[in-house]
Amino acid sequence: MPFWVGLPFCCIHGSITVDMLHQLFQGIIKYLLTWCLSLMTESELDQCLRTLPQYFGVHYFKNGWSKLMQVSGNERKQMVRVLLGCLVGKVPNNILTCYRALLGFLYLVQYPSHDEESLGYMETTLTLFHDHKDVLVTLGIRNHFNIPKFHSLLHYVKCIKRYGTTDNYNMEAFEYLHIDLAKEGWRASNPRNAMLKSHMHPAQYIDRVRTSMWYLQSCVV
């Protein structure tokens, strides 16, 4: 029996929020990039990326995307900025509409504040995608859209209304802690007893140092 069955006033489904990092950047965007390779070759896509003009604040992929081995969330964000420009003139207009709708939804989700108007924009862009997504099945790119990450898009508006903007529960903030609490600790230790030496001890030391700093600052004040 699940642990939450006997808990009063408990709705376990309400405790599960959407996850922008893994559902959108590492999920939806990954699907969009894979579908691109069904519409053009890797060399064509890389050539489109190389011919895009460089712009301040936008990463320039001088070698394209085919050479990337392990793509991070930040790199996915940079891909989103230039993806639509690579498809113009290369794919049917219905495909462009699908991609534009999903990318528009992705940017709307990241708003630092929302009102009924912005939430309405999110629902409109999502409806636009569903109205044109059948072209992907017609062209043989997809057989179906029974994909959990695409289903999760339906819950974003409801989740924002209930819990606030997505930056309150985005896993990206916690993933960044891997640098301090996992990677740096691992590099500073030997591989033996890795869990204890490279994860638990450094985290405890960091907490002690921060506590001491706060105490010293309070004494100075």
Automatic annotation (TrEMBL):
<dbReference type="InterPro" id="IPR041078">
    <property type="entry name" value="Plavaka"/>
</dbReference>
<protein>
    <submittedName>
        <fullName>Uncharacterized protein</fullName>
    </submittedName>
</protein>
<dbReference type="Pfam" id="PF18759">
    <property type="entry name" value="Plavaka"/>
</dbReference>
